[in-house]
Structure formats: C-alpha cells, structure tokens
Amino acid sequence: MLERLMEITKKHHDLFKYSIPLIASENVTSYAVRRLYMTDFGHRYAEGWIGKRFYQGCSYMDELEALAVELTKRIFGCEHANVQPISGVTANLATFFALTNPGDCIVSLSVPHGGHISHDKFSAAGIRGLRVEHYPFDIENFNIDVDETRRIVRNLKPKIFVLGASLFLFPHPVEEIVEIAGEVGARVVYDASHVLGLMAGGEFQDPIEEGADVVTASTHKTFFGPQRAIIMCKDELAKVIDRGVFPGVVSNHHVHSLACYVMACIEMIEFGRDYARQTVKNARVLAEEMYNLGYKVLCPDLDFTRSHQVAVDVSDIGGGDYVARKLEECGIILNKNLLPWDDVRNVENPSGIRIGVQEVTRLGMGEDEMREIARFIDMALKDKNPGKVREEVREFKSNFLTVKYTFEECPAYEVI
User: Is pTM, for the whole model, over 0.85?
Assistant: First the structure.
C-alpha cells in the first residue's frame, strides 16, 4: 500500500510537471508557503475567537490569526476581515447564514452566464434554502444587464445581490448594483475568489471601494495562497458574519494553512503588482493569438478579457468535453465550460472551454510563451498524432518548472 501511495503521488507530480496547466481555479505555491503546511499548527485546534478559545495552548495561534487579519486589511483596505473559512464555498455559505433566512430571495448569475454553483440552488444557496433568481444577462458585453435588473427586482424583494463569477472575464457593475440594492433594502456580496490576486495587484476592480457590503474569496487561484478562504465586510456586519463562520460552518479552521495564507499575503505585498499585471497581459495575448488562429474566442470587441481567464466556443469542433479531453491527451490541461447559450443541463458536453493563465504566469511565462501555448492548442486539435504534440509540450514545459514571484525561487512540482 505504501508503494502504491508513493507511486500515485509521483505520477501526479509528473503529470503536471510535464503538462501545461491552464485550469483557471488552480495555482502553485512557493516553498515558503508549503513549508508552513508541515508545522505543528496542523496538529492543533483553535476553535473560537482570538483570545476566546475553547482550548488552552492557543496563544501563538491567536497571534497568527491576528497577523492574518492585519495583513488582509492592509492589502484590501477592508473594515473587518474573517480569515477562518476553509474554502470559498464555506465562506459563501457562512455569508448566506449571516444575511438570510430560509425562503429569502437572492439574485445571482446563472451557471451558463458564469455564476459559481455555490451562488445557485445546486450548492450553498440551495442548502441554505434560498430562492435563487438570475440576473438578466447581456451576452454582447458578457456582463449583467443593469437596466433589466433594475426593472425586475422590485417585485423580487431580494435580501442579497451576489456578484463575482466562476467564468469571470470582466469587472461587474458593482456601483450600479449597490445603488439598486439600496433601493430595495438588500445587501451586495461579491465573490472575488477568481480575481483576488488581481485585486491585490491593482489589476481588477476594487469591490470594497465600489460599495460591496461583503467580499468573499478563496485564496489559491490568482492569489498566492493555500486552499482556504476569507470574508471581508463592513464593520456593521462584523458580528453577524463572524457568527455565520463560527459556530455556523467552521469549528477548527486548519491553522497550518492559515500560516500559509499569511506567507502568501507577504509574497503578494512584495510581488503581487508585477504578477497581476503580467497575468492579465498573458490572458489577452493568448486570447488574441487563438482568435487569429481561427478560434471563436469570446468578446473580441472588448479585447477578450480583463482577468486571467479566456473563454472559447468550441461547439463547432466537438464541444467542450471533447476538446478538453483531446487537449489533455497532448499535455494541455484545462476544463470544459458552459457558455451563455448552453442549457444548464448540458453539463456533459457544453459549448465552451475555459482557460486560465495564472499558474503558467507564476512559472515565469510571458507573452511569447502564450503564443506558443496557442500554437500547441491548435496543433493538438488539428494534428492526428497526440504523442508527437505531447513530446513538444513536454520539452517546452521543461523550461518552466520553477515558481517565480517569491523571495526564493523553487521547484514547482517536487515533493519537499
């Protein structure tokens, strides 16, 4: 069994070592972050609040959590920060517990329009027993239709407007939705999971400054951190948000990964601006190159994207599932994705694929490499010899195995 475990682990590392990772919700961490996973913090419980724990032995965990809160406030300029959620869905669920009752209405993006499942009846919102209504969507601008939203919401009486997305190409109309929410007595919750690192680097909108009441986010997509989450909010909501987290949905909050988050914040303060700028540049160059190769990249009239993501309609070449599987054979890893014209039930083979460049950017790739990646995708979808393409991909990737934008560059796919 031990040999089997180590074999699985090695094969997984080798898979990503020699593939091009383009999943928009993933990233690699530095050794500085990874080392903190292995500290004694991971053996302990910090149930409760700073200075008010239910166990003894928590004094240094209190200091650690206070530091995490301090850094979160410094980076994002929020009034209150809760750093205890252990995932983005947990953060969203805690917020729903804090701000709603079962049967209340919320407004969010549908999944084909880019919404995350936790904003819908399929996941956290449904678990809370919420009635979910969807924003009208402007396909041409790939964004919420503000005028139509204003028209329909008066009869809905929502408690929350949810912004942020899973397929997230452009900033959302936060200020406009805040205005509408004010007219109907609702709160605005912005899920920044995908764009948190871009926000920290000054390359995406600032929903806190634009008036959102609550911002939730996972910390491992465009941010440099481990897989956990944060909630930021106005001071007036601090008490209910904190109770929504604990005892609502979190007990012990995995303090070893909280230490990792603190290190990621320190790296983001030092390197986040350069990283975020390069990430957005890379996404646009990749999108433009694929468009020039004849692919149906979404939103060419809007310069394709302002985030780390690129969306492509591949319905005319087999659909998202077929394309994602074919690319994986060639060592290019991305995911199929619903697009606005898809039926939500068509999850098996939707029209689109979603590409994220945040991980390859962390590995030191720039605009020239994005053009190479576009060429590899084109070869993979047109060449009948996936083994040949995979060898070229392997050779290309072998030059990008080191984590950049950190104090000490380190191997990306080696076990410490």
Answer: yes
